[in-house]
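Feature request, filed as a ticket because there's no other form

It would be nice if the structure record came with a short human-readable summary line next to the tokens. Right now we just get the raw output. Example of a typical job, pasted below so the devs can see what we mean:
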Amino acid sequence: MDETDPRILFGQRLAALRKEIGWSQERLALESGLARSYLGGVERGQRNVALLNIVRLARALGKPPSDLLVFPE
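Raw output as currently delivered:
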């Protein structure tokens, strides 16, 4: 697994933000309208998430979409 892959970094960031507010994957899936299995794939870096889904996830988390794209340097 390439730790510089943006899909992996995005998934790690998404999982961290989700856990910050104490939500399960199931809860985020329900709040965002996305399937839990899809969300799991995104968090594992297996899915190339679309812009529309980034916006849906950000809104569900109460964050601007740019917050989901803050990766460590």
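Something like this underneath would help us a lot:
The domain at 6-62 is CATH 1.10.260.40 (434 Repressor (Amino-terminal Domain)).
The chain has one domain: 6-62.
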